[in-house]
């Protein structure tokens, strides 16, 4: 497995936000972590990227224990997160925002920019516009594009559909699915369980800090408990 989380615990003071969570992501896999508001999804991502400390448990990346590795070093290793709420530089152009993703690895990003524009043609059309003037869905594409410019080994997506109109949610999930088809390894954290599980190879359900179910995306979509609790069926 490329990424192996085992028995991971995290706290905020006395709040036990992550309770012995275990999760794996294989090379080329698209894995979804779904759960309600406040279930602990963001905490798992923050602990994984190193911005929140694990109390116990282990995180292995390419077989190496990175549980105590500083956050910036994890980024250098290729664990690249697209934060919830996008966090673009609004007055800067779309292209400048995309180029920022590549600053760390040096080299010539022109080729990668062209690949990215081929995947998201709308970003090429709007490349000289201030990122802040784009629609929510397009801004999410810029945020994902910026992360891709860093050449992730694993792309960590935190609620990419948040705050988007249903039509745009579809567009974003299509884009995520295309990334997977091109070989990107993805951990997708989502409240929108239906959309996430529909494109995921495997999925995990997290409830009050605990992972309670894991199975293939299709099996979870068909699971009665998942249907009732998360799909409104
Ligand atoms: P959301 O969809 O709202 O992002 P989530 O599933 O990502 O929810 P977390 O943000 O990980 O959930 O929160 C898990 C638990 O930890 C919640 O009970 C939350 O109130 C608590 N929590 C999160 N951040 C903090 C913090 N900085 N201080 C104290 N408690 C926190």
UniProtKB/TrEMBL annotation:
The alphabetical list of record keywords is: Amino-acid transport, ATP-binding, Nucleotide-binding, Transport
Output one GO MF annotation.
Answer: ATP binding
Indicate whether Transport appears among the record's keywords: yes
A Pfam match = ABC_tran
Residues forming the ABC transporter domain are 3-233
Respond yes or no to whether keyword Transcription regulation is given for this record: no
Family statement: Belongs to the ABC transporter superfamily.
Protein name (Swiss-Prot/TrEMBL): ABC transporter ATP-binding protein
